Amino acid sequence: MGLAAGSLNRRLRLQRPEQQENAANEPDPLWVDVGSVWASIKHTSGLKTIMAGENTLIARVSIRVRYRRDIIMGMRAIHGDDVYVVEATLPDVDRREYLDLVCRLLSPQEV
Predict the structure, then answer these.
(1) Residue 47 C-alpha from the chain's centroid
(2) Which site among 12, 37, 47, 82 is 20 to 30 Å from 31 CA-CA?
(3) What's the pTM?
(4) Residue 18: inside a domain, yes or no?
(5) How many domains does the chain have?
(6) What is the CB neighbour count within 10 angstroms for residue 78?
(7) Whole-angstrom Cα distance, residue 89 to residue 101?
(8) Which of 88, 70, 76, 65 lies closest to 10, judged by CA?
(9) Which residue numbers in the chain have pLDDT < 50?
């Protein structure tokens, strides 16, 4: 059957971390664009927690893209103002049609 192109209706920018050091020789991650992909985004769950003394919503998201092997845990996907961190990759091993990314929507304080 195949992955319907119409279901991939969001354009994402992919980034990988590149380590650099700041003036105090401390790690200071720099995010480097590695490309863009068409994807579908589904918000799967959300929960409230306290982070840095404030109530914060943690949103779990599933992002589906065409099958590829170069997206790994720790990368970021950006759609508009939303920044997602990839926490796991779930490939379609049998048919190699898609790759599901288990992601977390970053809060503005985390970006």
Answers:
(1) 18
(2) 47
(3) 0.83
(4) no
(5) 1
(6) 18
(7) 5
(8) 65
(9) none
